[in-house]
Amino acid sequence: MRKREQEIGTRNLIGKKVETLRRKAGMRQKELLAQLQVRGISINASGLSKLEGQLRTVTDYELVALADVFDLTVDELLKTEKA
Q: Distance of alpha carbon 2 from its chain centroid, rounded?
């Protein structure tokens, strides 16, 4: 597993959570990409990496598909941790 070379960005709220959920599920990025493609979402590996690194915005369609992949509601996916 490679370490992220770039700093975490601020372009979305869910990137870190998506990465955590994906790893917790034992899923590789290409497996998540395949799950998204089945749901009509086409993102390349670079796009997913940028999404997880919060360097890219997430469309509403992508948000709904990601919630579906991880069996969550959109609200649960958007929920942020409070300090």
A: 17
Which two structure tokens, joined as six digits, stand for 48? 């997913």
Task: Give the span between the Cα atoms of 53 and 56, in whole angstroms.
Answer: 8
pTM to 2 decimal places: 0.87
Q: Which residues of 28-63 are buried (b: 16+ CB within 10 A; e: fewer)?
A: eeeebbebbeeeebebeeeebbbbbbbbbebeeebb
pLDDT in tens, 43-79: 999 999 999 999 999 999 999 999 999 999 999 999 9
Cα gap 69→39, rounded to integer Å: 9
Name the nearest CA neighbour of 6 among 46, 44, 43: 46
Beta-carbon contacts of 62 under 8 Å, excluding residues fewer than 6 positions away, are 36, 41, 43, 51
Question: Which two structure tokens, joined as six digits, stand for 10?
Answer: 């601020």
